[in-house]
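Entries read sequence, tokenised fold; example below:

***
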Amino acid sequence: MLTRAARRHQRSGKGEPLVHAIQALHGQRIVLPRQQVYRPDEDLLEVRYRRFREAS
């Protein structure tokens, strides 16, 4: 899905920074905050991801 979004933005002339940002994350480890209070709410992340998938 990110690839599709990146391609769509790239055609609009806005996507090059997005493409580079995504490529820079390739193979990188995502580290969550140690304290639970600073971590994202998993239920809200699920809702946002579902909306993202439905929009594409």
User: Anything to note?
Assistant: The mean pLDDT is 79. Residues 42-55 form the longest helix (14 residues). The chain has three helices and no strands. The chain has one domain: 2-55.
